Each structure stands twice: as C-alpha cells, then as structure tokens.
Amino acid sequence: MAHKEQLKEEDLPCDIKDWSKHHVKEWVLQLDNVDVSAADILFQQDISGPSLLLLETLDLISMGLTFGPAKLIIHAREEVINLKGKKPTSSSNKPGKPSKPYPFCRYHDTFRYVEGSILDVTESGASDFIEPCHEYKAFINTCDKVKMTKFTSEVIRFAAACINSRTNGTIHFGIGDKPDFVHGQVLGVALNDKEAYANGLKSAIDGYFEHKNKHTAQMCIKPPRFVEVLNRNATSSDKCVIEVDIEPQSAICEENIYHTYNTKKGKKKSKETESQPGKSFYIRDGGSSRDLLASNTSSVLEYNMFVGQMPQLSQLRKNAEEKHFKRIKSTTQGSRLTHMITGGTLSLDKSHFERYVIVTNKSHPSHFENLGFLIELDPTAVLDFDPESAKYGLQTYFDQQSTVSPHLPAKYKITGGVEDIANKLKLTRNTSWVFCNGGIEHEAPSDVDQWLMDKGASVRDVISFLCRKDVLPNKRFLVIFLLLSTVREKMDPLVETFSTFWQELRGTDQILCICDNENAFTSWKDLIEARCGVDISGRCIYELSFAEVNGTILSLWSKNRRAIRFLPCGGESKVPLKKKFERSLNTLEVLCVNQCEGGNEDRVTIEENFYKGENVSWWNFHFSEQPGSTPFIKRDKFDYIMNTVIPELCSLPKACVLLNLLHVPGCGGTTLAMHVLWALRNRFRCAVFRKKSDFADVADQVIKLLTYSYDEQTPRIPVLLMIDDFDDMEKVYDLQQVIEKECLQSAKVILLNCMRSESSEVPEQTADTVFIGNDLSEKELKMFEEKLKEIEKTHKNFETFYGFMIMKKNFKAEYIEGVVRNTLKSFNMNQKNAQLLAVLVLLNVYCKSSSLSVSLCEDFLDLQPKPVCGSIKVEDGFGKFSNFIASCSVEGMVVYKAVKIIHSAIAKQCLQELTAQNVTKAEITDLLLTTNQFYECTQGKSNLLEDVHYILVKRNHSLEEESQFSPLVQEIAKETFGQEEMVLRNASKRFEKDAIISQLLARYYYLKKKDFSEAKVWADKAKELSKDSSYIADTSAQVIKHKLKHAIANYKEEHVSPQELNGFLKISQSAMEAFRQAQNLAKKESLQRLQIKTDNCPFNTSGCLGEIQVGLIVIDLLEKTPVFSPDGVRHDILSQVLSGEVKLESVERSDPRSNKNRTYYVILKHFEDVLESLKYRMKLNIDYLDKLYVNLGSRFGVKDTREQVAQNELFRCFREYKKIFCKTESAHLLKNKLMNLKMELHLARQFLEREKADTYSGILNCLSKEISAERMEKVVREYHNVCQTKHNPSPKERINLIYASVVLSCIKLQSQSVIPYQVLVNILNQVLNEPTPSNESLPLFFIAVVLMWPMPPDLWHRDLGRFISQMKTAYHTALKEVYNGKRPIVHFVLGKKYGYERLVHIRAIQSCITGAEQQFASLWRNGKIWKERKVRDLLCRVTGAVNRDGILADTGIPNLRLEVTPMYRTQISGYADGSKVSFFLGFSMKGPLALDIEPQR
C-alpha cells in the first residue's frame, strides 16, 4: 500500500501497540484511496493501536465502512507490521555521520559511539598486519537463547582467521551491515549481564582451540569491551557495542598455526572422537573469514601452501611490529602548553590572562581524576555541551569542589545593562556553568543536526556577551576548548562555537585546544579548517595525556597557591579551609593562618608598588616578617586597638560589635586596619568585605565562616570582618544589624569599619571610634626613618616612592608641591596621557574611591594589548606621569583591573597645579562628559557613570551652611563663573534619562540664574522621568516658591497693588498645591518602603516644610495690603481670617475704608478657601513634623545633618507663625467681663500653642530642649485653668495636662504645680473611661502604660495588656507614613523608685556619664551604657520569659504578664522559647521595649 510522501516513519511510535487513537486517525488519513470519513469512524470508535491489531475486515464493515476501504486498511496494517518487524523506525536508527572505531587494544579511553553514526572503516582483510581489520555483526535480531553461542562462535572464527593471517583485528557486535542497514551503522545492543560475555568467551577459547594453543589464543584474544552508545542528542542510552580485539604478536604466536574445532569440545572425549576430522583452519579473505579445510580439493592445496608460508608470514608480522614501535614520540608540547596557557609568563601566579573560559563536550568518569587543573583555574564560565553534565558529568565533579552558578544560554541575552546582567550571573564571583545543549530546567537536548536551529543563536549570545570589553578584560582572557570526546561531524556544536569565538576574538591568539590523542586532534583540525579556513595546529595540545596536561598546568602555580589553607579554631588548633567553601564566600576575602607561606611572589615589585602608593597587600606584612627585614611600621594606635579596644569589644554582650577606624585619606588607615587583621589571624577568623555585595549575603557568609567546622558546637573564636570605604555610617549600622540578626546568642562578630574622615581635626572620642590623622608622632617618624634606610639598600628608584615619602615627610605641603610641580612641568592638555591624568585627578579629588578601568585607559591611549606578556603596561602609557598612577582591583558589578592616583594629597595638588597652568576644572569636567570613548564598551563603565554622577550631584550638608550644589559645581562657578551652566548642560546630554540631573538643572536655574521658566522646563522633564518621586515633585514646588519669593522681593512699592496681589496669590496657590502633591508622594513612598525590608530611606519632609514656608510668604504679602495694614487691630483680624474664625465679608462690612479697598476684597474673596485654611494647614504640618521628630529618632543615634537643618528651619518658621497666630494685640480694647473670661481662655491657649505645649509631642520635647522650670510650671497652671470643668476641656487638653505634670516632675519634682501622682492617675482613669478620639489614642495609651506599669503596692489597671496592644495599633496608624528608616525614641526608662521618680528620662541617664552626645550615642549602641554603675543604680531590672519574637514580662501581679518587644530583636535570637531573661524596661510610642537583655541569674 502506498503512503503519501508527507507521512514519515518517525512521526509514529515504533510499535503499533503504542499508537493512540490520534495516531491511528493520522495514519488512515495518509492512506491512498481511503476517505476522510473512514478515519473519522475509527476515531469515533476509539480505535487505538492495540485494537487496530485485533480488527478484521468484517469488524470494519460493521462499523459502517464499505468493503473497499476496509480491505485497504487491513492490508496497510499488515504492511506496517511487516515493515516494523524488519527495520527499526526511530529516528535514532537512521544512518548518521561518519565515526571512527574505538581505539584498538584500549579499554579505558572515554570513547563512545553515537547511535546511527557510521564507522568509517570497512570490513576488511589483512593490510599492514598492525592496522586492525574489522567485522560487523548487527546482533539485534538474535534471540536471547542463542545469543551467547552466536557471540562466541563468531569471535572464535574471526579470531582464528586473524591469528593465522597474523593481522590485528576487531569484531563488533551491534554494528549493522547491508542489506538491512548501512554498512558500519552503529545500532548497539542491550545487555543485562556483561560479565557473562567475558566468562563465555574465555570458556569458548578453551573449548574451540587445540589444547597446545589455548594459552597463546587467550593472550591474542582480548577480553570483550563494552562501548557505550549515546543517543543522537548526546544523552546516555541502555545500549552498547561489544568489541573483541585480536592481537597476534609475533613473540607469542611464533610460527605456529591455529586450528579450531567445528563444535565446542566436551569435557571428556574418546581417542576415536579426537582423531575424527572436525577441525577448521580460518584465514582472513577480504572482508570475511574462510575455512581452508572445507571439503574441496582446492582448499586443501591452498591450506598446504598457506602453512608452508607461515615462517615468512610470521617474519613479516615481526617486521611490521618493529617498524610500528620505532615511532616513539619526542614532544615539546609540555612547554608549548606552559607558554600558551600563561600568555608567556610561564607561571599561573602571574599569568598574562586574568580570566579563563572553558568550552567542553561529553566527559567520561575516568577523566575526572586528571582534571584538577580546572578547579585551580577557577574559570569565569564553562560552556558545556554535555546534556548529562549535571547528572554525572563534569559539572557534578566541578560542583563538588568549587562554586558553580548553573545557567541556560538564554540568561546571557542582553535585556538590560550589560554589567547588571553580569552581576546577576555572578560572572566574576562564581563559575558560570552554561548548559549549551539542555540538561537543566527541563530543557531538552538537541540532536547534532538540529542543535544549530534549536540552540545555536542563544549560545552565540553567550559568546558575544563574554567577548565584550565591558565584561571580560580585552585580550586578557583565554578560551580553552577541552575536547573530552572526539568531534567528528561538521555540524557538531563545538565547531560552530569555535567559529563564533574565532570571529569575536578576531583570530586564534586567545584560543587553546586540548585533546589527548592524535585522532581526536586530526578530526578537530580538519573540521575547523573546513569551517573557518584556518590551521589551528599551533594552538592545539594533543600529544599529552590528560594526566600529563593536568600535572603540567598544576605545576605552573606556586606551592602557596596549591597548599591547603587553614583557619584558626581556638587553643592554637587549626582546620583546613576547603576550596569550595572558601569560594562560596564570594562576598568576603578570607585571611588564613598560613596566608602567603610558600609563595614565590616578586618581593621587589610588590614592595615598590606599595611604597609608591598602591593598596597594601598581605604579602607586604609577610615579607616584613622574613629574616633580615625590619618589622612592618606599627602606628601608635596599633597597640591601643590590639590591647584595649579589641578585648573590650569581645567582652560586650552584643553578638555583633563595631569598631570605627576613622582616618584622613592617604594617612594609612586601611593599612593599619589590615595590619590588625594580619596580627590577629591566629586568634580570629579574619576577612575583608568585598564591595558591591548584598548585606543579607554578607551576613549569611559571615555566619558560615564563624561556624565552619564546628558542626553543632558553639564557635570558640570570633570573626573579625574589615569593611573599607563605606560612605555612609547608616550603611555600616545596617550591615551590623543584618549580621546580628543571623548570629547565635553566644557568637561574636567584630566589624572593623575603616572609614574616611573629611576633616583632619580629631573628632570627639567615643567608645567605638579610633581616629588616625595626618600628623605623625615622633615615634612613628623615627620608624619611617629606619624603614627608609632598608628601602634605600634594596630599591634603586626609591625617590618615586611617593606614598611612603609623603608619610615620612609628615604630609609636608612643600614636599608634595615640589613633586607635583616637577612632574607636571610642561603639561600639555592636548596630549592624551595628560587628558587622562587630568580626568583621574578630578575624579579622585571629588570622589575619593574613583578609578578608571585598564581597558578604558588602553582604548583611550590607543595601547594595543596582545594576548601575550611583554605588551606595554597601562601605567607606562601615562609616560612621565606614570609615577602618579597605581593599579588596583575593583569589585564592581564585575571584578576588573583599574588604575587610580597614588595618593589623595597628590591628586589635590595636581588639580591646583593644573589650575595654575590654566587648565580649569570646567575644561576637565567637560572633557569627561563629552568624550564618548570613556563610555563605550569598556569594563567599569557603570562605576565610571556612578562616579561622574556623584561628583556632579553629591552635596555636602552642614549646619553652618547648606550647600546648594556639589563641591565641584560650586568650585567651577567660583573659578570660571558661567562655565558651570555649560557643564550641567553637557551632564544632561550624558545622563539623558536621569531625573536627578534634570532636577539639578532645575535647581541651578531657579537658585542661580533666577530663570524660572527654564527651571520649570527641567523640573517638568525630571517629573516625566520619575513621576512617583517626592523629591522631584518637591523641586517642581520649589521652582514655584522661589519664583514667588523673587517676584515679591523685586516689588518695591510699600503697598502691593490689587493686580500684583492677584498674581502673587495665584502663584502661592500653585506652590501650596505642588507641595501637597510632594507630601502625598512622600507618604506613598514611605508606605512602599515598608514592603522592602532593606530600604531604610526616611520620610521626605520637604513637602510639609515647603507648604509652611509658602504660608509665611502669603502672610507677609497680606500684611503689605491696606486691608491688613500692620496695626494691632488689623493684625488680629488677619489672624482671625487665616484661622477661619472671621469671614472676609464680615471684615469688609466693618472696614471704614471698604470702598477704597473694594478691589482688594474682590481678589481676596477669590482666594478665600486658601486663606481661611492657611493656619489650619500650617499647624497641621508643624504638628506632623513635631510628632515625627519627637517620637522617632535615627536608627543608630547618628545625627542626620539634613534633618537637623530641616528642624532648624521648622523652628524659624514656627517663630514667625507665633508672631501672627499666638499673640493678641487688641485684647486691651475688650472691656466686657464675659468677653474677658473668653479672652483669658483664648490667651491661655495661645500661650500653650506659643510654647508648643498644645500637643503631647511638644510637651515631651520640653524635656529635650531643656525648658526652664518656671515656664513649665506656667504650662501646668494654664492647663489647670483650661481643664476646669466650666471650660468643657477636650480629651486632648486633659491628656496634655497629664503629660505636662509628668514633664514638670522630671524637671522639678518638688514644684507646687506638679499634680500629686495619685490624683494624676485618677485623672488618667477618668479619661480612659470616656470616649477618646482616635487621633488621641496613641498619646493616651502611651501615658497610661507609663504611669500604670505594675509596681506593687501601686495601683495597676486590669486592662494594661489591652492598652499595650492598642498603643501598638495606634502607633502604626499614626506614624506608619513616617517611621520607615527610624527607630522609636525611648522617652522614659523604668526606675527603682515610686511615683513620678520611677520615670527616668533619657536625659537623666545621659547625665550619669561624662562626655558629649556622641559618646552617649556610642555607649547606647554598643550596650556599654547599661554597664555603668550609676545607670544600673538608677534603673529597675525586670524579669520575663522569651516568647517567640518578644518577651512576656513579669509584673509581680498574679496571672499578669505583659508583652515587651526587644529593642533589637537579635538580642533574643539565641534564646529558646520560655528562656528566663532580665532587662531594663524602656517606654516608647511603639510600646514597652526591653533593653540590655541578659539571662536571668
């Protein structure tokens, strides 16, 4: 039956039994002369494969088919059954590509066959005796019963023929032959018991060969070899090819002839049987074996002739063997490998190549013992084409010993910033293992023919990504093709991969190919030559075994690099640090006990680089401890840190403690910190924090380092972690908190925070801070003198050791000026090296940690790096300025090599010298912004953009002067006035999509140029780019506010005209609306940040402050109108109008000049809504900000300068607010007694508002601002008056009375105005029993918990637990918009006494210690404050039990335990639920807080 052409065998399962009803339908549809309706009937009747096999013609007719189609279907079925029986139908059995046979007489090669491939040797006879002849047996249609007999008889026949013909040979079982298959087609056979075949063959040799030849036959016939057969997509199958090699060596066979019995001999045979002619004598005759003892005369004659020529045949065999064994290789490939893999340096410690990329294919388990060099190479990426690598291939082996990030190629597709993608891939931190032919994430592997279509494009993306200059260093990475399996086909993915690398790298200089045999090399070389037209023989290693390759490469590392590294364990014991574990700590650089031991680093070069100004390395400390060296210079603070500070920190109860090492840039602060680590490496587990790391990852890895090798024991020694160059103290505390959260209770981590100080003046000393200035002591200078003597003996060019000499000269300005002036003599800004130096200098002065990547410098200076050592160094490209250049490694999105200025003092002086030579800062900045070459495809691009952005935007904030722009922009304006505009315009082009740069331009135009229309253009652009930013919205509002201020300031008339008033009020209204929008966005931002645990940005208060400022401008404006001229009565009227107490219509009616002022009234009425709510809006914002500042503080007690500036401005605004709203100038005009009573109440409330005592937060703040006792007494008296029943006081006023009395008791307990404690509690109970507005619930429940905390025999409230719960809810409701990034302030701590005296205010605790506010904040942070004797005597210690994330505090009242939150949750992380603890009790708006938690004794 003919089938239509489109039906393919592989479209249907091999076995009809596996067909579904869909398969049956599709099959019927393909039959000629069968209608579609027939297929539909079978489908409707659910006819699947098994039922199709059972059908007869009548069955089909009964279903409704006519006789003709029914017969055709049955006939077609029989054809398919016959076809399936004869020939396999799966695509894998189709003939494939040519393949070499398994290497002769080898058993441990990693060779495998691919199903369907064709062996490229034919079945043959003897050729040169050594080249094996081959015979193929399909062995797939043999039934199991006769398989062993078939196998042994075929092997014996073939073996005897080869031995008699004296030729090597291989017989293959599982290889197809014509007519059923293509000659040499790999089929494979499935075996259950391979050992049975080995035993069966041995037994057959004994049975078939003559007794005298048994031993030699056993030696010539090798044991069977079972070669694995892979599927077409390189996955494993259950099949193998059985092969038996025959090797009739002349020394074994001599001139003997070998007969075999036609049937296997029995164990016992009679002499008669033995004499019977049952023998055969086989020889190879072409592609088959022939028996010369067959029963015909010609064969007998041929037999006699063959036997007679055996001596000559044996001699020919012997000659062939001797000729073959003379080909002993003499190879130079070991030295070639050494040269190529190091780029000519001959040492991998100093390799020219910074990175390695591996491309590899199917591995074999026997490879792994010889691939140790891969672990040491620590490749950046591995492109693995073995789909089973993650199951039992190379990736599994590698993952056991190193850190791996598995990826599919799609992860490399550029969908965003290149360095962002590299960072997500952890590209230079872990080995990125790219599965190029599936094998993970359910990605199916592809056949060789299909791979290019399925996966070729995505792998090309991977290669293009890796070869970008901004990912891996240009010309400084090597691609190694590690051919673990022979590549035979031109469509093999590795051929395409090589071609892509060859194109991307523009040649083969950065490519090395390694295989372990000549056949694999020849096949690879030919395929590459055919594909690319290049001869790669010179870039290939193939004469070395993988064992030799492994040994050669491992020998290229120093003993130090290969040695086991050790960590301390306490008591001078050590534990080996496993390589994989160390690499998994990719956020840390671990310092080991035996660091540097056994190294062969170049001491002279390392010391020279350090003395010139490069960062100190561990080698510098190591070299200084060698015999004949003077010790490393100990700074004065070294012994203090070692002997005093570190032991004190270890004694603190906190799990993670902090030591700040503040230092002036360039004075050796980082060196001192590393010296401390070096000295403590035997006693602590020391590590350095790598930059650009996520804090959660750092904390996790610090804990792993802390607990490594302790199993479930408690760690015995602390981790000492150095962090360097953080620019924000808050980040340091964040890191401390995250680590502490992960720490066990008894664990200890010490953070050594090495941070630059902007000032060279010694700051206020605190318990957790050490300062290193730029003024060396006599003792230190003497040590520098001694070190200089040693340097002069060992180094010739010591005059250029500027880093060392600057310190040796004690930072003398004259020395630095002289060095810089001499070096920059005849500086020419037109030269490229001069331009690059100028850019580096500018960046270093305004952004201390800045650098430029080596690849950027090479591009700009037009240096052409080559992939071999000896090419020009980038420092040399700077010419005469090279002594000012130091190299460094930068931990950015990717890790890369860079250059920087050797010393901050040199950079600063260079900039001054350039200015003296008429090279302005504007010119250098302009060069930096407009030179596209800096921002093209080079490493470090994102870091450079960050640094440039920083120097343009980052402002210095101080209480004395709020800088409007960054120091660079301000100095450009000062040095070349007007040029700053050009710089900012160019910045907007470089950062076209950056809202902050647009915001910067808006600020420039409204602050400096007073060009408000241009400012609005830039503010609008910023809003487009960042619609939801409250800071950008605030800038838009500021543009309007400044426009208003400018317009009013320029209006010189005494009274403002109606027209101008109208215009000014319109602008005011717009400004207030804009500031309200900023407030709404700030609240929205803050709520969103609460969802992101790591975002600690505080609430943006500028919108609230801005609206208050506009309110004051409006008041000033109104006072310039005739309606509200500044006399006492008109002042009070203005106050009443703006408070909404009096309508403008009423004012107009009573105005004797109303006709004259009519136009003003018309305009004012147009804005009546704005004016009547002005006081309300101003007071709302003032109280809102007060509530924030009084109840919430910085998380770690660090002063926020910007917040202090805002508070100072709020204070100024309130001072102006008081003048208009908190005094009545016409009270003397009121004579009526009733009116006097009202006025008295009014004046009392005005007084309370004026003192900011009309809110609970304002009253609490009286303690902090140290109000006098007399004024506080007056506050209490006025509240007594206001809270008289006849005045119908509000709940708020009665709550404020309670607060006022508590605050007065803290200031002057003996005052007569203090309400007796019990009376106060009674008032509190009355308020608690009455309905309370929701906005007053927070202050009410707070003061209730404070005053009623049980302390027998005092009274207590049975609902106290509910009050605490409601206080927490109210805290969240009232402050959720503003508490992100803040910590609730502890207003009181529970004291030991009774009544008012048990409320200890923080000021009272602060007075117990000597030292300023910073010292107190430091002691509070590290917990030392609670160890002070005076403090402990003052406070009451409470007990309780740990309960989940909190503590249930004991109260002394039966069945009453109250919930308390730890100040830091980490304080109870090591305690089990129910653990008994003691603590001091603090009271904050968020609820009671546990301070200084300790196990209960």
Give the topology.
Blueprint (H helix, E strand, L loop, with lengths): L20 H9 L6 H9 L4 H6 L2 H7 L3 H20 L11 E2 L13 E2 L3 E2 L13 E5 L6 H22 L3 E5 L1 E2 L8 E2 L2 E2 L3 H15 L5 H7 L4 E6 L5 E11 L3 H4 L6 E2 L9 H5 L3 E2 L1 E4 L2 E4 L5 H12 L1 H16 L7 H10 L12 E6 L11 H6 L3 E4 L4 H4 L1 H6 L4 E4 L10 H7 L6 E5 L12 H19 L10 E6 L10 H13 L5 E4 L3 H15 L7 E2 L4 H9 L4 H4 L2 E6 L2 E5 L1 H6 L3 E4 L11 H10 L5 H7 L11 H16 L4 E8 L5 H11 L5 E5 L5 H13 L11 E6 L4 H14 L6 E8 L12 E4 L5 H17 L7 H7 L4 H11 L8 H15 L5 E2 H7 L24 E7 L3 E7 L2 H13 L4 H10 L10 H13 L13 H9 L3 H12 L4 H15 L2 H14 L4 H20 L8 H34 L10 H17 L9 H12 L4 H7 L7 H9 L1 H5 ...
Parallel strand pairs: 1-3, 2-9, 4-5, 15-16, 15-19, 16-18, 17-18, 19-20, 20-21, 25-28, 25-29, 26-27, 27-28, 39-41
Antiparallel strand pairs: 5-10, 6-7, 8-10, 9-10, 11-12, 13-14, 22-23, 24-26, 30-32, 31-32, 33-34, 35-36, 35-40, 37-38, 37-40, 38-39, 40-41
